[in-house]
Amino acid sequence: MPLDIQVRTATILDLAAEVLVVGVLQSGKAPVLSPSLKALDAALGGALAKVIEKDEFTGKCDQSVSLSTLGRIHAEKVVLLGVGERRGLRPPALRTFAAKAARVAVAERAKSLALVLPAGHEVDLRPIAEGLELGAYRFTKYMTGDRKPKVALATVIIGATGKVSGGSKASVMVGQKVAAAVNLSRDLSNEPANVIYPESFAAAAEKLAKEHNLACHVFDFKEIRRRGMKLIDAVGRGSRHEPRFVHIAWTPKNAKRKLVFVGKGITFDSGGLSIKPAAAMGEMKHDMSGAANVVALMAAVAALRPKVEVHAIAACAENMPDGNAYRPGDIWGSLDGKTVEMVNTDAEGRLVLADALAYARTLSPDVVVDNATLTGACVVALGTTCSGWYGNDEATAREFAAALEQSGEQMWRMPLLEDLREQVKSDVADLKQAGDRHGGSITAALFLREFVGDSRWIHCDIAGPAAIDRPTAWMTTKGATGHGVLTFLAMIERASR
Fold it and tell me: Are 123 and 217 part of one and the same domain?
């Protein structure tokens, strides 16, 4: 259920909730108490100022102080959260502040939260609503008995100093819908592989499309083979759960541009015949995070109704070993027509993406963006808090970089080094599936580039199972769940202007 977010004109002492969180700007060696904080300190008998002094709280980002009110005001607990300097307080930082506030409330097992924004930022309510919903997220579906949470955050009151406009309420609603899309991606990724497999993922995509009045086409295994998607066939044939190919579309009249988003949907990755060690297999239900991202993105697109055409493509398969599985040394064709020599069945994601990218080309897109939990090499290079991205066109790269700046998600541009291209050339086929262990993320991107043709293309190698991105601090569950959705949505909104 979405949070009940209310925006009220009220003083800090009038806000009634179990937890009161106040955003404080950084100010020298100690924060200068605003008039409202001075009133709060007076109501608490000077206790707030004492805690600030004792903890050397200055309002720096990530600093916090808290104290019990002992019933002296309408809130049971007060928390001051540092938000850093004013010049850095842009929408991503406001989103993170709100997410932290929601996480404080969840940790306190509070049903209600009152939020006081830093002075001058009361009108930026969309990122605040996004952060509240994202920070309150928990995946507790399978907890029972004592493990099941007894309470959940339900109500948030945002205190405003001026009159609340109808536009503010609309901004909150948009923010909640955007966050709901990100949380849908997280739900899909956090489901176990015995619940989400190619067929059930496709069913979830169809349900979403129907609810939002979007066009949706799902190709079953027979159709995948009929169309010549031989690389998806290769990856998916080792499992009793047959592969699926999902295409969801938003096609408004007089669209300004056409953007296509492609996601890797490996619902479980055992490594195939090149089987993973047991310790590396437990989180492989998250290997469909890219597909979850693009499907969930369409819920946000339906809410915003942009003036651009948007397509989401998810190539779904389960990579398992059996007597029918593809093998190292095999040579397979592709939808593009190129032949591929297989060298490692645990490099399966680039195969399903290759056919999906070739399909995306048939839509004549202005830009194609793919995203995938593609390589461990990228995690080795950038760590678990940052994704890598590549671009084959400088104008498109600048567009994507601007969207990243707007979203606040942490990604780093990686180079398409031409001298590494030799690693994906085969002696017996057009291409080799993978290069050697050095530059693994780059060679994977170079392999994918072989299937995009003349399309302007961005590839995102999203951070692996431990991804907790500081600018997107709501990502508290394992898995790269939802990472990229806000950036893709920013691309769409910028293209719609």
Answer: no
Q: What is the pLDDT of residue 40?
A: 94
Handedness of CA 347, 348, 353, 358 (dihedral sign): positive
Reported as a single tens digit per residue, the pLDDT across 269-284 is 999 999 999 998 988 9
Residues 196 and 227 in one domain: yes
Q: List the catalytic residue out of 350, 432, 449, 478.
A: 350
Note whether 186 and 154 are same-domain residues.
no
Residue 170 lies in a domain: no
Judge contact between 354 and 334, C-beta under 8 A.
Answer: yes
Which of the 8 DSSP states describes residue 73?
S
Do residues 95 and 174 make contact, with C-beta atoms less than 8 angstroms apart? no
d(CA 344, CA 327) in angstroms, rounded, equals: 8
Instruction: Out of 77, 276, 338, 494, pick the active-site residue.
Output: 276
Reading the block at residue 395, the tokens are 């104008």
How many whole angstroms separate alpha carbon 136 and alpha carbon 478?
A: 15
Using a pLDDT cut of 70, give the percent of the chain over it: 95
- The tokens describing 143, both together, are 């907890």
CA 129 to chain CA centroid, nearest Å: 16
Catalytic (active site) residue 141: no
Q: Indicate whether 141 belongs to any domain.
A: yes
Residue 452, C-beta contacts closer than 8 angstroms, at least 6 positions apart = 357, 360, 361, 368, 392
User: Is the residue at 194 inside a domain?
Assistant: yes
The tally of domains found in the chain comes to 2
Q: φ and ψ at 458, to 5 degrees? A: -125, 135
Q: How many CB atoms lie within 10 A of CB 127?
A: 26
Residue 310's nearest CA partner among 297, 328, 326 is 297
Q: What is the mean pLDDT of the chain?
A: 92
Locate 126 and state its tokens: 């969309």
Question: Could you tell me where the DSSP H helices lie in 212-348?
Answer: 221-226, 230-236, 289-304
Range of the domain at 446: 179-495
Strand partners of residue 318: 268
Residue 95: CATH number of its domain: 3.40.220.10
Tens-place pLDDT, residues 237-257 = 999 999 999 999 999 999 999
Question: Is the same domain home to 257 and 118?
Answer: no
Same-domain check for residues 253 and 361: yes
Domain-terminating residue out of 160, 190, 221: 160
Q: Which of 267, 456, 472 is nearest to 373 (CA)?
A: 267
DSSP single-letter state for residue 121: -
d(CA 455, CA 365): 7
Claim to verify: residue 316 and residue 424 sit in the same structural domain:
yes
Mark whether 276 is an active-site residue: yes
Q: Give the CATH number, domain containing residue 267.
A: 3.40.630.10
Residue 168 belongs to a domain? no
